[in-house]
């Protein structure tokens, strides 16, 4: 689906009548679908500026505040940073957040035979350890627990815009690619429902 490149398409709406940290709150929601970035793609963003007693309080991706004070726009939040081709780094980000594995890197040490001193040789992957050092006399390997990767299902679902997906689906590049045309068709409908040129 081709998108017509536009320089500026913006909706702004103000929401008030709420208290924030003891003052009068106001939220200005900004929704855009255009090529303001100048990268050759229209992209969607929903951001906001929060005011307390008419002084700027916060700004940017205030999605929790948008959901709370501008609930009519909450369904749009999932499309934030989706462009005319796909959600931002759709496959790479989804698979990264869905990935999980045990610690896979660590330090290779060598025990000097004369002095008995333990020397830190290098930081290596498990595969490098097995191929280069494992069978050598005096070498030891200590895994770095920080290299363990735990999947973040919430983030993976968010980057895939697939709230009901299983971890296995989010780890499968073919399934992610297969659902992309329908996802982009839905995105086009959302953009046009806002009165924007797709």
Description:
The radius of gyration is 25 Å and the shape is elongated. 29% of the residues lie in helices and 30% in strands. It is built from 6 helices and 7 strands; from the N terminus they run ββββααββαβααα. It is an alpha+beta fold and 198 residues long. Helix 2 (90-98) runs antiparallel to helix 4. The model has no long low-confidence stretch (mean pLDDT 95).
Any key phrases for this structure?
single chain, 198 residues, alpha+beta, 3-stranded antiparallel β-sheet, 6 helices, elongated
- Structural class comes to alpha+beta
Give a count of the beta strands, DSSP E runs of length 2 or more.
Answer: 7
Oligomer: single chain
Helical content class: 25-40%
Main β-sheet description: 4 strands, antiparallel
Overall pLDDT score:
95
Order of helices and strands: EEEEHHEEHEHHH
CA distance, first residue to last residue: 9 Å
**Shape verdict:** elongated
Determine Rg (CA atoms, Å). Answer: 25 Å
Q: What is the number of helical segments per DSSP (H or I, 4+ residues)?
A: 6
């Amino acid at each position: 689906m081709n998108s017509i490149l536009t320089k500026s398409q913006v909706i702004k709406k103000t929401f008030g009548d709420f208290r924030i940290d003891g003052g009068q709150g106001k939220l200005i929601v900004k929704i855009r679908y255009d090529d303001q970035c100048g990268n050759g793609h229209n992209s969607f963003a929903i951001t906001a500026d929060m005011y307390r007693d008419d002084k700027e309080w916060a700004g940017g991706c205030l999605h929790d505040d948008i959901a709370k004070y501008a609930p009519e726009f909450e369904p749009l939040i999932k499309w934030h940073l989706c462009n005319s081709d796909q959600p931002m780094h759709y496959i790479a980000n989804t698979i990264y957040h869905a990935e999980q594995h045990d610690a896979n890197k660590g330090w290779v040490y060598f025990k000097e035979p004369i002095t008995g001193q333990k020397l830190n040789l290098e930081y290596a992957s498990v595969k490098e350890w097995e191929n280069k050092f494992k069978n050598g006399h005096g070498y030891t390997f200590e895994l770095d627990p920080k290299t363990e990767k735990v999947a973040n299902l919430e983030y993976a679902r968010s980057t895939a815009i697939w709230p009901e997906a299983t971890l296995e689906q989010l780890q499968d590049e073919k399934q992610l690619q297969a659902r992309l045309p329908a996802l982009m068709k839905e995105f086009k409908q959302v953009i046009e429902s806002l009165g924007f040129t797709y």
